[in-house]
Write a structure and sequence with these properties.
Helix content: 10-25%
Distance between the termini: 149 Å
CATH topology of the largest domain: Trypsin Inhibitor V, Chain A
Order of helices and strands: HEHEEEEEHEEEEEHEEEEH
Radius of gyration: 44 Å
Strand order of the largest sheet: 2-5-3
Structural class: alpha/beta
Largest sheet: 3 strands, mixed
């Protein structure tokens, strides 16, 4: 009988100890449905201060992630948020918002003289939409002008029309030596060149009024609309025009044949000696 009592006492003590240990070491899991959740409000279009006040009233925290340019939403107003409107958040959660920096404006650059590809690339990098229009306004290939004109401030997105020239073709300089001075302009127009400086050599033995020297030389490559200058035998129409001998003219010209042909700086340029006509 005594042994039975001891066994019962031991069993009771073991049960109590096991129950205590289970409660301490393995507490009951919290009920997930017992969490206080809040629906995230739509903050789009409100100011940053108002967004913070609305979230604070719901037990939520706001933080500003920065701003982005926007063509419609005024500066300072919320344009995006995370979590999205309608999602659930716990009390104390942070809502990240992005505000508008307002419209973005850019100034149209001066592109005259740039290569067509460079001008188009620059406009694109500045955020402009471009429309390229070819024109024959210039004999030199490249960008000529823009519409709107350079310096105009535009609100993005904006379109800029870029006018470019394909340039005049390279032509061969005709042989003018021995031709009469009155025929030169017409002869040059036939190959899309222009008459440059005309000088006279009074004591030349050749027939009066005929070309005795030209620059660039016959056969040289020259861009269309370029100038060809000449020396003519005889007396100039204007008696005040100073004489210039053939040797003197040669001294004023570059020494190498290449300089009379095609170079980046000389195509379409007037030769070095000045015109007296």
């Amino acid at each position: 009988m005594r042994l039975l009592r001891l066994v019962l006492l031991f069993a009771a003590m073991f049960g109590i100890g096991y129950l205590f240990a289970a409660i301490r070491l393995f507490p009951a899991a919290e009920d997930p449905t017992d969490v206080d959740l809040t629906v995230v409000p739509d903050l789009t279009g409100v100011s940053l201060a108002e967004a913070g006040a609305r979230l604070s009233a719901l037990g939520l925290v706001s933080t500003d992630q920065g701003s982005l340019h926007h063509s419609e939403v005024p500066a300072g107003a919320v344009i995006a948020q995370r979590p999205l409107p309608g999602q659930l958040a716990e009390a104390g959660d942070t809502i990240v918002v992005t505000t508008s920096a307002g419209v973005e404006t850019r100034r149209v650059p001066d592109l005259a003289g740039l290569a067509s590809s460079e001008a188009a690339t620059l406009l694109t990098r500045l955020g402009f939409e471009i429309e390229i229009e070819e024109t024959d306004e210039s004999a030199i290939a490249g960008a000529i002008r823009t519409d709107p004109v350079a310096g105009t401030s535009l609100t993005l997105p904006a379109r800029v029309r870029l006018f470019v020239s394909l340039g005049k073709p390279i032509v061969s300089v005709p042989d003018l030596q021995g031709r009469h001075v009155d025929d030169l302009e017409l002869l040059l127009e036939e190959v899309e060149l222009r008459l440059g400086a005309v000088r006279y050599q009074v004591e030349a033995p050749e027939v009066q009024g005929r070309v005795i020297f030209q620059s660039p030389a016959p056969g040289s490559a020259l861009r269309g609309e370029g100038f060809v200058s000449v020396i003519v035998a005889g007396t100039p129409p204007d008696p005040a025009t100073a004489d210039l001998t053939r040797e003197a003219v040669r001294d004023t010209l570059p020494a190498t044949p290449d300089s009379l042909g095609v170079t980046p700086d000389s195509l379409g340029a007037t030769p070095s000696f000045s015109s007296d006509c």
